[in-house]
Amino acid sequence: MEITQKFILNILDPIKHTVKEASVAIMDVYESEHFNAEIKSDGSPVTEADKRANDIITESLRKITPDIPVVSEETYDPEEPNPNKPYWLVDPLDGTKEFINKSNDFTVNIALIENSIPIFGIIAAPAKRKIWSGSFFKRPSKLIKSIKYLGHMLNDPSTFDKYHAARQPLRIVMSKSHQTDIDKKFLQFLDKRLYVPGIPIHYTVVEKGSSLKLCALADNEADIYPRFGPTSEWDIAAGHACLRQQGGRVCQMSSGEPLAYTKEESILNPAFVCFRNTYLKDKYLGLISEFYKKLV
What we know:
InterPro entries: CysQ (IPR006240), CysQ/Inositol_MonoPase (IPR050725), Inositol_monoP_metal-BS (IPR020583), Inositol_monophosphatase-like (IPR000760). One of its GO terms (cellular component) is plasma membrane. Its EC number is 3.1.3.7. By secondary structure, the chain is of the alpha+beta class. The chain has 2 domains: about 5-145, Fructose-1,6-Bisphosphatase, subunit A, domain 1 (Fructose-1,6-Bisphosphatase, Chain A, domain 1, 2-Layer Sandwich); about 160-295, 3-Layer(aba) Sandwich (D-Maltodextrin-Binding Protein, domain 2), CATH 3.40.190.80. The chain has 9 helices and 14 strands. The strands form 5 sheets. Strands 3-4-5-6-7 form a 5-stranded mixed sheet, with helices on both faces. Strands 12-14-13 form a 3-stranded antiparallel sheet, with helices on both faces. α1 (about 5-30) packs antiparallel against α2 (about 50-65) and α7 packs parallel to α8 (about 235-245). The longest helix has 26 residues, at about 5-30. It is globular.
């Protein structure tokens, strides 16, 4: 099956309906007085909301695209071989800890992977009543207009954007619930570096949960998202597609290469960093890689 822009546009409305239906199921649990959380074998929590959303999404995707297999966090089997054709990669409820703690920073994530690239992604934030979507296709204007999404990034940053980036604090998005000692050391590292000779790097920290960290970059609410700790491919694939359409990039810290999916060795991602645009990537990737290489 060939994944084309026309194919994505044809399935967009039913996919949007799917994430809305999953969002309703999640909010039904979220707004109930009591719900139980179980601990999976990997130590992460799972709730009835995860299970309900997973059932809705997987069943719907199999009806919409019966020839495309579905890989979901809730049913993933590491012993099964990776699909050798396009497949759906699903995280039915990203940010379960935020969900349990009654924070609004949890999301529904669906991505379509082709040739190790998230060619299309859609994210819903049920408690915020918002949906993001994006694809890797070069002419996404119709796709952008067909969803409730307001983005302001251009694929090629303007002179104003470069000027703004040089004079405004660097907005670093980090996790609400997973901020680590390494994150703190990274900020201390930036405190000792200069933007240009004589001018220190000024920054602010934007706290977000789940894949909303990538949405913050796509929405021009943050500039970079460094992730040193472990994540799984389904955690960021949909956000990667949304960010990429807005001109952003997701790079491996060790090599600077684009983050790849469908890895044979593990579903886990290496350390990576997301940039709002290519100008910020060119400006800060080397600095972030310098810090990372000192860790390893």
